[in-house]
Amino acid sequence: MSALFADRIHTAKQLNRTSGKILAEAREHAVTVVTEGEDAVVIQNRTDAARQAQAESWLKRLAPLMAYFFESDLRLPHELRWVKDLHPKNLETFRHDLPLEVMRATRRGDFDAFEDWLYDWQVASEVDANPVLRRHLKVHG
């Protein structure tokens, strides 16, 4: 059996006997509770669980984008199709910075800042796709 948090494992029997102690421990860091023949259960505080859920949601959304960049799948979901409108120079910068921004957001647990970063690129793609707007904003390239 593999545990998510190998150094914080308790049995279901221990949870029944010392639930207060284990729940207090879970406030500080996630703990794994194992029961023979059953899937392990992770107990963690709400903030960490929300951060992890947000990270997983973003990673699922970014997987098609990475597949697009590596040309293993050229279909992008509707909400990411704006990437195709980026000017080649902007696209190269975006491709270079994307993994760095994902790692930064994951480390900080701040996907709101990542969403703002992504939105800025979406705006850039709208400018890149519109020659009139590019001239009006005096964007060259």
Helix-strand sequence = EHHEEHHHH
Q: State the oligomer.
A: single chain
Radius of gyration: 22 Å
Mean pLDDT: 81
Low-confidence stretches: none
Helix fraction by DSSP (H/I, runs of at least 4): 55-70%
Biggest β-sheet: count, sense, barrel? 3 strands, mixed
Percentage of β-strand residues: 5-15%
Distance between the termini: 55 Å
Tally of DSSP β-strands:
3
Structural class: mainly alpha
Q: Which shape, going by the Cα principal axes?
A: elongated
Number of helices: 6
Strand order of the largest sheet: 1-2-3
Please describe what this structure looks like.
- This protein has a 3-stranded mixed beta sheet.
- Helices cover 61% and strands 7% of the residues.
- Helix 4 (88-108) packs antiparallel against helix 5 (111-129).
- The protein is built from 6 helices and 3 strands.
- The longest helix is centred in the middle third of the chain and has 24 residues, at 46-69.
- The chain is mainly α.
Features:
single chain; 141 residues; mainly alpha; three-stranded mixed beta sheet; 3 strands; elongated
Concise overview:
By secondary structure, this protein is mainly alpha-helical. Helices cover 61% and strands 7% of the residues.
Write the layout of secondary structure elements.
Elements: E1 9-11, H1 12-17, H2 19-28, E2 31-34, E3 41-43, H3 46-69, H4 88-108, H5 111-129, H6 131-136
Parallel strand pairs: 1-2
Antiparallel strand pairs: 2-3
